[in-house]
């Protein structure tokens, strides 16, 4: 059994724009409760702003509290689910990478810190006044999405662009984000994370990624160290362990099958590797998670 990957087409109804979805959050979870009731990932970029409600939002095994003014950002492939303790209200929108980047050719999604790197937190806490002013923009976005006005897509794109800029300003003031020493280093790190996502099952050594990037292993380690204060090996192992956790918790596969899926030579080696990185064996992790 695999972790379900939800596609944007599963949410789209009539009067929609291709590769874009906008809704009030209360309506979203009511309409799509069968789709989102269990842990899942997406093939799109997602943004939620809460105006009311409480609970827990788990993203790739990190738990975050839900509260008024909380904003969450999700990139394709991240696994998440919600547990609410009071009724949530707010707004949600999501879109494909192409929907945004075809309109803003000189300004990709990775230029926003919350989408730039997995090392940066996927959330933001807005002050009450900022939440209030941005909720007006979200309401305008939601209204525009539901209606068929002239130049609708242009206005929607502009509103989303404005929202991302405002969130970026609040995010950089609110969070200690990883600062990148140069735009060149930023690009290398972005490409490295993409390559790791594509090849971590089979390629677990830095040399492979350095070769793919046409740089030396030494230079690649320098880039990773200077941008996020880690080694390339640490980034690779973090991705392997994250996938292992996803498979351990969100599938019914036995642990030997998971070791095979991740291309470890045998379960004993996988278990030793997992324990070295997390402090628990795969079996202990599965039991603790469901305790």
From TrEMBL:
Transmembrane segments: none
Signal peptide: none
Pfam families in the cross-refs: AraC_binding (PF02311), HTH_18 (PF12833)
Keywords: DNA-binding, Transcription, Transcription regulation
Domain of life: Bacteria
InterPro entries, per the entry: AraC-bd, Homeodomain-like_sf, HTH-like, HTH_AraC, RmlC-like_jellyroll
SMART domains linked to this entry: HTH_ARAC (SM00342)
Domain HTH araC/xylS-type: 190-288
MF terms (GO), sorted A to Z: DNA-binding transcription factor activity; sequence-specific DNA binding
Gene3D superfamilies: Homeodomain-like (1.10.10.60), Jelly Rolls (2.60.120.10)
Cited SUPFAM superfamilies: Homeodomain-like, Regulatory protein AraC
UniProt entry tagged with the keyword Disulfide bond: no
Entry keyword annotation includes Chaperone: no
Name of the protein: AraC-type DNA-binding protein
